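Both lines are quoted verbatim for reference:

——
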Amino acid sequence: MSDSDSATESRERPGTSLRAQGDDVEDEIDIAGLVTKLLSDRKNANVLCDLLRFIQTDDLDEEELFFTVGAIEKWFLQQIDDGFMKSSQVESKKKYGEWIAKQMKAFIGVMCQKASIEDYSDIIFPCLIRLYKLELETRTKHIETGKIIRKVATHLCSFEEDRIEEIEKFSEYLIHPDFVIELLRKMTDLMENYKDRNDVLAGNVLYLLQAISDVFPEEVLSDMNMSSRSSISIKSLKTAVQSFITSFLRRQLTDNLTKKVLVKMSVILPMCSNPLLLAGYIVGCYDSPNSSIAFLALSAIFTLVSEFNFEYPDFFQKVYRLLSDDVVYAANRVQVLHLINMFLQSPKLPVSFQYAFCKRLSRLALLAPTPVMIGIMPVIFNLIRSSQSLRLLINRPTADVADEDPYVHTAENVEDSRAAESCLWELESLRKHFVPEVKRLASKISTTLGRVDDPIPTDVTYMTMTQKVLDGQKNEEYPLAIDRPKCLISDDLFVEG
């Protein structure tokens, strides 16, 4: 057998590696044998140094690394169970414990170094988390929990790599409040050191917050913590979340990132110890010249007002001003309609504003593209359904004749709009629309609206409208001739001259 064949055979043997020593000489190292030797007798503790060297020098493949890391972790656990990492008056035991502590420090250092390699992260991080948990339980003071949690935080809050898949893998640890608090504290320090924000970092941060929100407890019970010795309150958990998101928002964000943050505010605010501290940021977003950001900010302000007793004067007045003619042509118009529908269902909406919104939406429906008409009319009907007084815009007790509509569509203030003096003649006009779906919806104004709110469509386009008409047609055959032809070309077609 040639040297190359021997090398190949040894490589394929489980627990065996080849290490080059010179150009032509190769020594075979039995990883399985070294591990067995390490675990069998305490006298063979020096074998640990060889295994750590093999891990550090990239001499092990993925299978060998998994086997070796697991064996070393098991060996350390044995030493802790035997009490060698506790203080002792016996000099020999004391020195041996100091040596173990140094090897533990070296092991964690090598593991943190290897964790940066993507192929090894699935092996390294679970081991680091188990060591972190072991220190919480045993309090040896020799397992560097700070270094471990810092490595996890740096890995998940990457500035360059998408970590969504890794965050999903870490979700099993996010159910432990004591672990989450320490993780968020380290991430807060990272956010303070990062001088910039980009899409990758924002995506990782927001996905992590979503993952935490999915398992966020109403109260912290003792059995939820990673360690039975931990004593964590729900207030300290919410404080950690708020400190983290505040440090993230302290740097300037692009418009795109600002939209992503505002969309997640409904998830973030309930996890904060004092959501009103974020009100300044949200109100500042409302003042943005970008109408999309302004509407998303209003949605967050609405959450603060309705759920956290935030006093924000003229909220509905500002919503009314944002509802301009340009909204029906905006790229996010469907999302805006959903927000408007949510705002208008508030019991705090004054009657005068109900009239004004109903009239302005009716005018926008008359001016909007056909697909947007189908989205606006359900919002109008939901508003009328929730307030009996708005039925005066449809049927008044006396017939009044006016030369022109008293409603002032261009007025920015509700008080100047005179909406209560008008009627919904716009919907009456839409009953004669050439599109059947628009005509059908507009005709609901002359029927009983019922008690169930109309859903706001999310995918109405000219294409979907056309497809709906085509799908409703029957697949029938249409005759092209009076008499069914018997062949392609008949002799009767040819006439002699």
User: Anything to note?
Assistant: The chain has 22 helices and two strands.
